[in-house]
């Protein structure tokens, strides 16, 4: 989603702000801007398009100064344009940036117009700027004015503001959209993601829900939602600096695809010991809750939802307890019935996904046995809101289309499934079979990656097509869904996934020589059924591309191109077959010339509904 960077220092902060925005480009955006206190006034630059456009404008018109805020915008209210880009200003003294959505902006806009304010944009953010300016008239400080402003707002926001009449501070507020404060020597920084600030600091504190803060050169004052001062220690981040370096790869997405063997090793480290699965850091009383669990409810969005659907097969097969999976945006807005002794699980890469976070808050009032999040961000809202946490250890993922984070989620969910099973007396032979599969998984993924060149050649058959159908059965059906999503996200080709057994119930009507059909065909108990589905397609003139286990006995012939995959273990096959699907989507997008890492209209972290 949108990116925020702010800085207050004794040195020029303009390049710190721009570099921070560059490090947040992976989040998705359509415009960029900054505002800097310079020569006794706030001066602003905004540009439609990439941060590089803003950098060029800054080169042409330098704005030196020790106080500034910057932003990359992903359009919600108002079209992508320079006039709608952040920062927004009120009169000549207030400048403000904002992530999130203010739901009552129309009502507030009418009130402000009646007081004489004029609007130069279509955004909800400009409403906030004018509200802050109005409240400042009757407040003793900018922080107090921000507190009053936030009480008027309905919706989500992470916001930073500065005042030309009080240039010794920034004020920030957080409600539903993350903000982090970084500390240097005699200087402080603010951002929506610590990644933006790693070149200048590694010491951070994270604002909690409902908090506001005043950030000065000599320190930070944090107030909770009741106005009480909060004491919080800075934490040192161990995140890697090179997360935003593509290295030898053409795109971040390709780099992250090839990082997956290491990601699996990192996710297993310390959790797979002496051929046993041991997770000791989930949280207090986790084993007691797991032992009492008689049903599981999983909530997620997008790629995380597909990971949840795979986990459903594992949980019901190995634990013999019901597992319900639902899209967060649907779950949060309907009446739900909670099965007795249910464990509530959320899955999110960022831990800030708005719909999933709202569903978690709803669940905490519904009598679940406990709440657990599977997440890649240890400082996220979902981690703080949940009773238990399982971190995925995927590292920073820059490409908007998730790859390594998905694999890490699947591995983590398998570890979680076994941990719940062991609390309920899982047979040691079952655990051993899963451990064997996990121990071999990094090498099997590496083997799949070695097929990249052949998949690149295969991708040419898709580049000029307008539609693609993906088929899978059992736990491979969600992998087909994820494959279709990837192709849609980065190549803009319409793609759909079906459970192969559903072909006769409608999709067969689509089959012709112009629509490629991709089949995921591991050697499992559904393989013979899947072969029949393949024949149904071939007999109707469909062009089949089958990713099949080497021993599946499916041969290339007229209308069928078979791509052999090595996968010894059925339970980990979803992770292995994900790799060629990711590579296929990537190479098709490269041929089509799309923006692979930042596909149009999409954002990395969806912190609004």
Automatic annotation (TrEMBL):
Q: Which SUPFAM superfamilies match?
A: N-terminal nucleophile aminohydrolases (Ntn hydrolases), SIS domain
Q: Which GO terms describe its molecular function?
A: glutamine-fructose-6-phosphate transaminase (isomerizing) activity
Nucleus listed as a keyword: no
Per UniProt, residues of the SIS domain are: 286-426, 458-599
Q: What does the UniProt keyword field contain?
A: Aminotransferase, Cytoplasm, Glutamine amidotransferase, Repeat, Transferase
The EC number(s) attached to this protein equal 2.6.1.16
The top EC class is transferase
Name the catalytic site residues: 2 (nucleophile), 604 (for fru-6p isomerization activity)
Per its record, the protein catalyses: D-fructose 6-phosphate + L-glutamine = D-glucosamine 6-phosphate + L-glutamate
* Domain Glutamine amidotransferase type-2, first and last residues per copy: 2-218
Name the Pfam families on file. Answer: GATase_6, SIS
Record localization = Cytoplasm
Q: What is its main location?
A: cytoplasm
Q: Does the keyword Oxidoreductase apply?
A: no
Output the NCBIfam families linked to this UniProt entry: glmS, PRK00331.1
Quaternary structure, from the entry: Homodimer.
This chain's function reads: Catalyzes the first step in hexosamine metabolism, converting fructose-6P into glucosamine-6P using glutamine as a nitrogen source.
Which protein are we looking at?
Glutamine--fructose-6-phosphate aminotransferase [isomerizing]
